[in-house]
């Protein structure tokens, strides 16, 4: 992990190899060779994604004379991370591969960080920018904690595999990127009002990435590798913005706090990116920005824009709006010291999130 820095020095941790394209999962051995990794990896995968990509990675490495071990994880919990660490220590693993969606990647990323081992991210879906970032989200009962971790040494994003994932995951990835708009506005606000450290480069990159995705909504379609390519490049670029900032600030503001709050209060939360997208509509309204443009873009992507489309009752949306500012009190946003119940209802109704 990056050691604490003096005020005027900066340490940006970025992936070294990023491989994107049709069939690039077959490059996994070449990537490991390029990084001079050892011969004893642990593949961390999901029960479902094992069949989709975990087994392919295993076979490629085994056929090349490498001796991989495999562990499947169901959820991103501290217990899951501990289990992976135990297996890695038992097997003397010298690097970890996270093969799957957000949960498998986060568990592998955090276990690798704690064991001080290299980590490679092999996403099977482009559902959020955690596939590239230096953060991991760990679920503990009703709470989700976002912790600092090492960035992946490499990202291998096979557009063929990702194009075959349910389209809903890709739309969620787009929404996670579009949320950069309000995240950056919140960051600017904190810079102006609180003199919070701010990076022009990270903010500009993050906003430009959101613009590219929002401008591309008409060409993002199910099962198209060209669409996956647009989204994966945006997720990488958003991850790089977070690396430049050495914080998730460029990609996580009030809309993410709303999503994290929803994870805590909703009986059955929706996908991370979907919730952030709906949060972005409402936070953009609070910023006085063009929330209808965000809403229209999400609609074109067939991403949820309402509580009903998220599958969450209106009352939980309101509860999450009232709770959101407490999620990360040190991160100043447009939510300030919190909304009143009346203001929460107004923003949700005006933006058509609730009826
Ligand atoms: N590290 C970070 O910076 C971030 C982490 N997160 C965390 O990531 C997790 C959510 O990740 P998601 O990817 O949204 O959801 P997820 O990991 O729950 O996966 C959603 C579903 O998609 C399935 N799936 C994945 N690839 C597939 C494929 N190719 N074909 C068929 N099914 C496939 C999985 O089996 C799973 O059932 C949460 O734990 C969240 O807190 C969210 C945002 C950022
Ligand atoms: O989801 C993220 C960026 O899209 C990471 O943000 P958090 O720091 O809120 O976990
Ligand atoms: Zn996110």
Automatic annotation (TrEMBL):
<feature type="binding site">
    <location>
        <position position="272"/>
    </location>
    <ligand>
        <name>glycerol</name>
    </ligand>
</feature>
<keyword id="KW-0443">Lipid metabolism</keyword>
<feature type="binding site">
    <location>
        <position position="133"/>
    </location>
    <ligand>
        <name>NAD(+)</name>
    </ligand>
</feature>
<keyword id="KW-0560">Oxidoreductase</keyword>
<dbReference type="Pfam" id="PF13685">
    <property type="entry name" value="Fe-ADH_2"/>
</dbReference>
<feature type="binding site">
    <location>
        <position position="256"/>
    </location>
    <ligand>
        <name>glycerol</name>
    </ligand>
</feature>
<dbReference type="GO" id="GO:0005737">
    <property type="term" value="C:cytoplasm"/>
</dbReference>
<dbReference type="GO" id="GO:0006650">
    <property type="term" value="P:glycerophospholipid metabolic process"/>
</dbReference>
<keyword id="KW-1208">Phospholipid metabolism</keyword>
<dbReference type="InterPro" id="IPR023002">
    <property type="entry name" value="G1P_dehydrogenase_arc"/>
</dbReference>
<feature type="binding site">
    <location>
        <position position="129"/>
    </location>
    <ligand>
        <name>substrate</name>
    </ligand>
</feature>
<feature type="binding site">
    <location>
        <begin position="124"/>
        <end position="127"/>
    </location>
    <ligand>
        <name>NAD(+)</name>
    </ligand>
</feature>
<feature type="binding site">
    <location>
        <position position="256"/>
    </location>
    <ligand>
        <name>Zn(2+)</name>
    </ligand>
</feature>
<feature type="binding site">
    <location>
        <position position="129"/>
    </location>
    <ligand>
        <name>glycerol</name>
    </ligand>
</feature>
<dbReference type="GO" id="GO:0008654">
    <property type="term" value="P:phospholipid biosynthetic process"/>
</dbReference>
<feature type="binding site">
    <location>
        <position position="176"/>
    </location>
    <ligand>
        <name>glycerol</name>
    </ligand>
</feature>
<keyword id="KW-0521">NADP</keyword>
<comment type="function">
    <text>Catalyzes the NAD(P)H-dependent reduction of dihydroxyacetonephosphate (DHAP or glycerone phosphate) to glycerol 1-phosphate (G1P). The G1P thus generated is used as the glycerophosphate backbone of phospholipids in the cellular membranes of Archaea.</text>
</comment>
<feature type="binding site">
    <location>
        <begin position="102"/>
        <end position="106"/>
    </location>
    <ligand>
        <name>NAD(+)</name>
    </ligand>
</feature>
<dbReference type="GO" id="GO:0046872">
    <property type="term" value="F:metal ion binding"/>
</dbReference>
<feature type="binding site">
    <location>
        <position position="176"/>
    </location>
    <ligand>
        <name>substrate</name>
    </ligand>
</feature>
<comment type="pathway">
    <text>Membrane lipid metabolism; glycerophospholipid metabolism.</text>
</comment>
<dbReference type="InterPro" id="IPR016205">
    <property type="entry name" value="Glycerol_DH"/>
</dbReference>
<keyword id="KW-0594">Phospholipid biosynthesis</keyword>
<dbReference type="InterPro" id="IPR032837">
    <property type="entry name" value="G1PDH"/>
</dbReference>
<protein>
    <recommendedName>
        <fullName>Glycerol-1-phosphate dehydrogenase [NAD(P)+]</fullName>
        <ecNumber>1.1.1.261</ecNumber>
    </recommendedName>
</protein>
<feature type="binding site">
    <location>
        <position position="260"/>
    </location>
    <ligand>
        <name>substrate</name>
    </ligand>
</feature>
<keyword id="KW-0520">NAD</keyword>
<dbReference type="GO" id="GO:0106357">
    <property type="term" value="F:glycerol-1-phosphate dehydrogenase (NAD+) activity"/>
</dbReference>
<comment type="similarity">
    <text>Belongs to the glycerol-1-phosphate dehydrogenase family.</text>
</comment>
<feature type="binding site">
    <location>
        <position position="272"/>
    </location>
    <ligand>
        <name>Zn(2+)</name>
    </ligand>
</feature>
<keyword id="KW-0444">Lipid biosynthesis</keyword>
<keyword id="KW-0862">Zinc</keyword>
<feature type="binding site">
    <location>
        <position position="176"/>
    </location>
    <ligand>
        <name>Zn(2+)</name>
    </ligand>
</feature>
<dbReference type="GO" id="GO:0106358">
    <property type="term" value="F:glycerol-1-phosphate dehydrogenase (NADP+) activity"/>
</dbReference>
<keyword id="KW-0963">Cytoplasm</keyword>
<keyword id="KW-0479">Metal-binding</keyword>
